[in-house]
Amino acid sequence: MAKKEEHLLTKIDDELRKAKEHVTNNKRAAQAALRQKKMYETELDRLAGSRMTLETQVNAIENANMNLETMRAMQRGSAALKSIHANMDIDKVDNTMDSIREEMALSNEISEAISNPVGMGHELDEEELRNELQELEQDELQHQLVGAESAPAHHLATSSAAPRTSNHADTLDEDAELRALQAELAM
Asked: Is residue 170 part of a domain?
């Protein structure tokens, strides 16, 4: 088809050249060349239309093949899913998950039973442990509050002469300084 189109384009150019040659001296020959040119142009248009029709058909066939392959792949996928799900339904899945949960709970109970100390002479009382922990927290908070309130007093009344020997002595000195400052402020 491409060769035919090239041949027709060459013929059209030849006829146009002939028409230009004869336009001034032989009008009848110029008109005949233009008619022939029009005939070649019509043939070229038909050929272009045929090419377009063929290209459209090729595209349609390619699309149909692609659709067919897609449909076959979808059918194979559907069959695979049916095969997989043939032995599985939501009830079986729920039962399996329940069984797993039960076994995990049993495993946790066993682990907890194994990890409890045995033979220590007495069982630990969780409530007693919580109370002791709260007491420790209260003591620590109290200690932090005393340290925070006495910090400015410590800097105001420091003496560089004697270094302190223990934390307990530091706390007693800080408490005394704090009471002295509070007494001054109360006056």
From this structure: no
Q: Is residue 171 part of a domain?
A: no
Q: What is the dihedral of CA 81, 82, 86, 87, to 10 degrees?
A: 0
Q: Is the pTM of this model over 0.90?
A: no
pLDDT in tens, the chain (187 residues): 889 999 999 999 999 999 999 988 998 998 999 999 999 999 999 999 999 999 999 999 999 999 999 999 999 999 999 988 888 888 889 999 999 999 999 999 998 888 876 665 455 678 888 888 888 888 888 888 887 665 555 455 444 444 445 566 677 788 888 788 777 776 5
CA dist 42 and 27 (Å) reads 22
Any idea what the Cα angle at residue 162 is, between residues 156 and 168, rounded to 5°? 80
Long-range Cβ contact pairs of 39-48 (< 8 A, separation 24 or more):
40/8, 40/11, 40/12, 40/15, 41/12, 43/8, 44/5, 44/8, 44/9, 44/12, 47/1, 47/4, 47/5, 47/8, 48/5
- Looking at the 3D structure of the chain, how many domains does it have? 1
Asked if residue 56 is part of any domain, the answer here is yes
Residue whose pair of structure tokens reads 């377009």 in the numeric block: 52
